Amino acid sequence: MRILKRFLNFIASRMFFLTVISALLIMSFYLAMNTANIWVLIDDGLDARAGVVLMGKDAGELEKYFRAEFLAQDPVLQVAQSDTSPYKDYEIRGYDHRVKMVSVWSWPWESVARAEVIESIPAIDGTIRASRREAALAAGGEERLSPPKWTTCRYRVTMVRTAGRWKISNLQLLDQIEDE
Q1: Of 35, 37, 46, which is closest to residue 153 (Cα–Cα)?
Q2: pLDDT one-digit tens code per residue, 67-120
Q3: What are the extents of the domains in the chain?
Q4: Which residues contact 95 (CB under 8 A, 6 or more apart)?
Q5: Tens digits of residue pLDDT in 124-162
Q6: How many CB atoms sit inside 10 A of residue 26's CB?
Q7: Which of 20, 50, 53, 71 is 20 to 30 A (C-alpha) from 1?
Q8: Is 172 within 8 Å of 158 (Cβ atoms)?
């Protein structure tokens, strides 16, 4: 009887450790999967947002990445779609968009995730429209012929998972970083 009890105790302890290790592996897998999905969402979403601001792309495409409530009150998009946009007089051919992930966290069982990112556009390829060239030269000289620089910003991003899909629900500006 003592041998059987020791044998069952041995089997039970091994099963317990196997269960704990399996649970940790499954949780790690879902954490990594959420992190990858969040990274892609933030990178593609902020790139699409920059495309709307710089190149005048269709703002309707942003609904793939952002919640409608955020898009309605996003100050960057409001300025870009108004007459005060600093890029309205320029023909932008391309840009180099970069997102650096500082931190990200999302528990596998939660429907809210948070990340901190730095968004920058170090190079914008474009020139002033021909109709505005003379006025720009008179107002600011040769420097006004190139598009204005994009402000590098640090954001706290909040994402919400609805119907199994992540969407950005808020971009909180933490800091504007001066480029060197």
Answers
A1: 46
A2: 999 999 999 999 888 888 888 888 889 999 999 999 998 888 889 999 999 999
A3: 32-177
A4: 50, 54, 55, 121, 123, 124, 125, 150
A5: 998 888 777 777 677 766 666 788 888 999 999 999 998
A6: 11
A7: 20
A8: yes
